[in-house]
Amino acid sequence: MKRYEVLNCLLCNSPLDEGVTWKTLLSNRFPRTICLHCEEKFEPCETESRESLISLYKYNDDMKGYLHRYKFMHDVLLAKVFRHQIQQQLSKKKEIIVPIPMHHAKLKERTFAHIDELLNEANIPYVHYLKKITTETQAGKTREERLNAPQIFALKENQDPGNKEFILVDDIYTTGTTINQAKRILLDAGAKSVKAFTLIRG
């Protein structure tokens, strides 16, 4: 497990009380990267009965600010903020972890794949089974436009999902269009089951 010493909160820059200690080095918990005050601003999602989708947090103003800094201001260090929570949820899963992919043009513009980085920081192995075939995004669309969006993914060459179990990982779930389209590609190619995990529920 990778260890980084973060001395100040990555969100508000206030000093952190907890540094790297023997306890954090010997345990499975990552050292803290944000202060308790910032951590308390994120609202956990209520546990849902359906196991096909797990989301960790609600999309409140503070989470909106986090996403803006991380994705659009290219603050890749913020991938560390939720690494412990993501690892707790995914590290013992038997399914293959599949990140929702970025289009190569968008990746070049942003310089990093934000879902991949969240998983990298949490030490979660993953495999790219999908590719994005359009630069079109769901942001800014109405609910009706999202639900009627054309297919934006395709199966990657030389990948066979046949009889395998998967967990799709994305940053945010709103109408479910992105997850459902990716899920359909895998199921149509023979996947045994496809679940989903997102950091945020919109």
Automatic annotation (TrEMBL):
Give the source's domain of life in one word. Bacteria
Q: Which Pfam families match?
A: Pribosyltran
Listed CDD domains: PRTases_typeI
Q: Where is the Phosphoribosyltransferase domain?
A: 118-201
Q: What is this protein called?
A: ComF family protein
UniProt source species: Ureibacillus aquaedulcis
Q: Member of which family?
A: Belongs to the ComF/GntX family.
- TM stretches of this protein: none
